[in-house]
Amino acid sequence: MAVASARYSIGIFRRRHGDSASALAESESSSCSFPARTEWPSHLSTTFHSRSCCKRLGGRMNSLPDIGDFNGEKVPTPILDLVGNPIHLKNLSIKELKQLADEIRYELSFISSKSDYSLRASLAVVDLTIALHYVFHAPVDKLLWDTGEQTYAHKMLTGRRSLMHTLRKKGGLSGYTSRSESDYDAFGAAHGCNSVSAGLGMAIARDCKGSWERVVTIISNESTMAGQSYEAMSNAGYLDSNMIVILNDSRNSLHPKLDEGSKTSINALSSTLSKLQSSKSFRRLREAAKGVTKKIGMGMHELAAKVDEYARGMLGPSGSTLFEELGLYYIGPVDGHNIEDLISVLQEVASLDSMGPVLVHVITKGNLVADVNQKNEVSTTQPEVPVNFHPRSYTDYLVEALVMETEEDKDIVTVHAGSVMEPSLRLLQEKFPDNFFDVGMAEQHAVTFSAGLSCGGLKPFCIIPSALLQRTYSQVVHDVDQQKLPVRFAISNAGLAGGNGPVQSGAFDITFMSCLPNMVVMAPSNEGELVDMVATAAHYDDGPICFRYPSGAVDRTDNFIRSGLPLEGRSAEGQS
Predict the structure, then answer these.
(1) Residues of the chain with pLDDT under 50
(2) How far apart are CA 560 and CA 568, in angstroms?
(3) Among 374, 351, 221, 358, which residue's Cα sits nearest to residue 280?
(4) Range of 248's domain?
(5) pLDDT in tens, 421-431
(6) Cα–Cα distance between 151 and 104 in angstroms, integer?
(7) Least crowded by CB within 10 Å, which of 153, 281, 337, 391?
(8) How many domains does the chain have?
(9) CB–CB of 10/83 below 8 Å?
(10) What percent of the residues of the chain are helix, what percent strand, and what percent coil, each to the nearest 5?
(11) What does the alpha-carbon distance between residue 246 and residue 150 come to, in Å, rounded to a whole number?
(12) What is the distance between the alpha carbons of residues 412 and 405, in angstroms, rounded to a whole number?
């Protein structure tokens, strides 16, 4: 056994022999330090210094925000001020952890009020983030996030709180997890649906090397719209390697009628059942029962498996048996805002060895930001702007041009793919609900779905962000271009994406779309040409056609949009 000592701000970190241990980091954020001696197996005796956890930013780490980072009054955060890295959570009481969650939400709300981007997704997972870092031992244990917008509490707890004012700015923190930014970011997250695949790869690599670290992936509602998530979970069930998948269910749905209907309920019974499902004794009893029925005979084993499936299906929420069919042991639902329950379930799951992949279903509230803003009374008012000034984006001009074309031709339909829908697109959806299809983060499906619409005699406009169009290339080539189907691609967020970082930049679409033999490629130089290109695409039926446009505001003060004029001389032989 190797013995290491550490100095950290809150409490003394205690571990039993044989338990996993976290990488110790020296915190310089607090004047009250306690000596501690921690023991763990010698092959994991590497010490992670806090300065190595902010690699790309020159190691600038501190638990306290830099003075002058924000203007205005901020709610006091006494516990958060003492948390420089996750090891400082280990000896906090449940009451203190709850207070820490409130303080993180207060600070995130304050940051959001001083910026032009929403932190709603991160506010919903504050309790879950604290529980994960309390139970597991990053960066030795691997935490992989599917959605970058949910990771800001994670960034604050892993030594980057003082740099949160640089979030999504040049030279500052990335808006997503980044391996080059911190050792606590096990994998880069930006385009979604990749965490289970990457996590499974890490789990298999761990098994091959004979190490023991835990792998935890956190997926969201949006992630479950993409096929890669299910491909990865199916493969995880087949390979039967130990890993944990956390489904953060924020109760969002693409279908408005489902949003209005019944939701998965969280109550004392469901909480008790989740703890029972995750307990080591229950899991071992279940495995022992499987072994007994196998010895009796395959018929008895199959019957017992069916009884188990039906029983768990009746006790669990709708759809829970889907994950069981994929080979993941389902636990849930768990209240995502009850830290005590979260810690209890995660500790049981973390203690399980050789039990294969597990999915923990966690229910969170996506609208938590409103309640927090009321409690902490942090002002969320934006700087006053003239009443007659309404900055318009290229998407606004696209939508108004589509409205004009759809009013003239009822065969025009819009297919939207991606995790975020801009407000103007929602207005288009409301105006033409029967001509608008939002498929979420299912871009590959969106392309082939549009091809099918075209085969059926409709005129689909398929709106996909440039960075996400990259993973649809096989469908674009085989399902659209080779068949010369008139699908109109509106490629949004083209070009450099600024604060969204390199993964969200759309720098390659011109190259990979222009090399297709039947594709017409267009790029407007201003909003007027964009309107004309919408009209051109609406009247072009000889094959696929695409046009790209950037994000951001248009530099003009009037709101007048003229009718589009189809461009002349555009063909697949002479691409624009």
Answers:
(1) 1-52, 67, 71, 254-262, 269-270, 289, 293, 298, 301, 304, 314, 370-389, 571-576
(2) 24
(3) 351
(4) 78-253+321-369
(5) 888 898 999 99
(6) 12
(7) 281
(8) 2
(9) yes
(10) 45, 15, 40
(11) 13
(12) 8
